[in-house]
Design goal:
Blueprint (H helix, E strand, L loop, with lengths): L5 H20 L2 E2 L6 E2 L2 H12 L1 H19 L5 H17 L12 H31 L3 H33 L11
Helix pairs in contact: 1-2, 1-3, 2-3, 2-4, 2-6, 3-4, 4-5, 5-6
Length: 183
C-alpha cells in the first residue's frame, strides 16, 4: 500500500489537470458517436501505477468531470465514474511495479500493459455501459458499442503513451548503487 503524502496530493492535482487538458484539447473524434481517440488514459495509467489506486481514481474522476463540464453538455457521470474505476483498478493491478524506483523492465512493461488492458475492459465494457443503462436509460446496443470502441482505443493509446511515459520516468530515477564516493 502506497502512503498518502503531499507528493500524492500533488500528483492527483497535476494528474487531473493534465488529464483535463489532454482530454479536452487533444482528443480526436472517432467514427462512433461520443467517443474519442484520447491520450489522457496513458497519463492516468502512469499516475495510478506510480502513486497508487487512490491517486489514479481521483485524477480520473476530477479530470473527466472537468472535461464534461467544459463542453457544456452536462456531466456524464457514468463515464466520469468509469474513468475513476480505471484509475483505481490500474493502481491496484500495477501495485507491484517499481517505476518510482527506476525499474521498468520488459516484465514491467508487460505487467503494465496487461493491467491497463484489463482495467480498460472492466471500466469501459463493464462499468460505463451498465451505468449508462441504469442512470440514463440509454439503448443497450449503443452503449456497449461505445464502451467496446472506447476500450479498444484506450488500450492502444495507453500501451503507446503510458509505456513511453513510464519508461521515460523510470530512466530519470537514479539506480541504487549508481553514486560512488570519490577519494
Amino acid at each position: 500500500m502506497r502512503k498518502f503524502t503531499v507528493k500524492t496530493i500533488v500528483a492527483i492535482g497535476i494528474g487531473a489537470a493534465l488529464f483535463f487538458v489532454l482530454g479536452r484539447f487533444v482528443a480526436i473524434p472517432s467514427p462512433i458517436p461520443n467517443t474519442n481517440i484520447s491520450i489522457q488514459y496513458g497519463l492516468l495509467a502512469f499516475i495510478a501505477a506510480v502513486f497508487g489506486p487512490f491517486a489514479g481514481a481521483l485524477a480520473g474522476l476530477i479530470g473527466h468531470f472537468f472535461i464534461d463540464f467544459s463542453f457544456g453538455w452536462g456531466i456524464w457521470w457514468s463515464w466520469v465514474i468509469a474513468s475513476a474505476v480505471f484509475g483505481c483498478l490500474m493502481g491496484i493491478f500495477s501495485s507491484k511495479l517499481k517505476i518510482d524506483e527506476g525499474e521498468f523492465s520488459v516484465k514491467g512493461i508487460i505487467t503494465f500493459n496487461v493491467a491497463q488492458a484489463i482495467s480498460h475492459l472492466l471500466a469501459w465494457v463493464g462499468v460505463a455501459p451498465c451505468l449508462d443503462i441504469l442512470m440514463y436509460q440509454e439503448p443497450v446496443d449503443k452503449v456497449f458499442l461505445q464502451g467496446i470502441t472506447g476500450a479498444i482505443i484506450n488500450i492502444i493509446t495507453t500501451a503507446i503513451i503510458g509505456t513511453i511515459v513510464c519508461l521515460a520516468y523510470a530512466k530519470t530515477i537514479p539506480q541504487k548503487g549508481s553514486l560512488k564516493e570519490e577519494n
